[in-house]
Write a structure and sequence with these properties.
Structural class: alpha/beta
Shape: globular
Radius of gyration: 20 Å
Distance between the termini: 48 Å
CATH superfamily: Aldolase class I
CATH class: Alpha Beta
Number of helices: 11
Helix content: 25-40%
Largest sheet: 10 strands, mixed
Strand content: 15-25%
Mean pLDDT: 93
């Protein structure tokens, strides 16, 4: 009779308490960031058809919504603004009374302890929908840096705790760091969308934020999904320019990149569980094909296991409720 191996891994899987003792990766509400859309010119929340459960909030209600999120234990929100007026230069992005600037002040008035992170990109504010200044049909990198830095500064002056440049222009982290430091905001962190890929998973977001490009696409400045080593170069450059937190976006199709960034660099790593990832799960759950709670927790745990310290996710309020049970 052959000897059975003395190592039996099932011994520590017998029940939930045993499994909990040896669990390697933990998902906590303190690691979640909730993205929020605020729109000018609306009086009540507008549902986003492609993102069930997510809405565009009017300015007058954003404070109450963030209070609700804070009560669930979620420490931070990431703000996206949809202005009434757009122009070639995205001037509402850096206007002192722009929708995001007003939203920051409204949130800080009712929930001062909530960390307010602001997306720094021109795409929601430009008439052409691109992330920078357009000249002769092309996005101008260096000319866009000044506007992005002005946008970040206006957010911090309004009370933002962290600015998060998502435009993928070369040198934008350094430009923002320089302007913030020059104006006395040396303590304000930058969360850089360092490895942001030109992904098909952004579709629902573009409906939510009204930011679809009016011509062409963003492949000349967002990353090729096939490139992993280049992502590490992007992260390294952002760190060199002064980034305090680096991000990989999207998350699910780029778990390998998250792991490589985590292994290579010591900075905190964020991952964005993006709109398309959210909508696919919601659609499947609504059709009864999957157990939504089980799948969401599995997905977010996978992102943490890959190496993310924090996760930006539209599921944050639901997950906060599940984790408290």
């Amino acid at each position: 009779m052959s000897m059975f191996p003395t190592v039996r891994l099932r011994r520590t899987r017998q029940n939930e308490k045993m499994r909990g003792l040896i669990r390697e990766t933990h998902l906590n509400v303190e690691q979640l960031i909730y993205p929020v859309f605020i729109a000018e010119g609306i009086d009540s929340p507008h549902e986003i058809p492609s993102m069930p459960g997510i809405v565009q909030w009017p300015l007058k209600q954003i404070g109450r919504e963030v209070e609700r999120v804070a009560e669930l234990g979620i420490p931070a929100v990431l703000l996206f603004g949809i202005p009434n007026e757009k122009d070639e230069m995205g001037s509402q992005a850096y206007a002192s009374e722009g929708i995001i600037q007003q939203s920051i002040r409204a949130i800080k008035k009712v929930s001062p302890e909530t960390l307010v992170i602001t997306d720094v990109c021109l795409c929601e504010y430009t008439s052409h929908g691109h992330c920078g200044v357009i000249r002769n049909g092309d996005v101008q990198n260096d000319e866009s840096l000044e506007l992005l830095a002005r946008m970040a500064l206006s957010h911090v002056e309004a009370g933002a705790d962290i600015v998060a440049p998502s435009d993928m222009m070369d040198g934008r982290v350094g430009a923002i760091r320089h302007v913030l430091d020059e104006h006395g905001f040396k303590g304000t962190p930058i969360m850089a969308y360092s490895a942001k890929f030109a992904s098909g998973f952004y579709g629902p977001f573009r409906e939510a934020a009204g930011s679809a490009p009016q011509f062409g696409d963003r492949r000349s400045y967002q990353m090729d999904p096939a490139n992993g080593r280049e992502a590490l170069r992007e992260v390294a450059l952002d760190i060199e320019e002064g980034a305090d937190i680096v991000m990989v976006k999207p998350a699910l199709s780029y778990l390998d990149v998250i792991r490589q960034v985590r292994d290579r660099f010591d900075l905190p790593v964020a991952a964005y569980n993006v709109s398309g990832e959210y909508s696919m799960i919601k659609a499947a759950a609504q059709n009864g094909w999957i157990d939504e709670q089980r799948i969401v927790l599995e997905v977010l745990t996978a992102i943490r296991r890959a190496g993310a310290d924090m996760i930006i996710t539209y599921f944050a309020p639901e997950v906060a409720g599940w984790l408290k049970r």
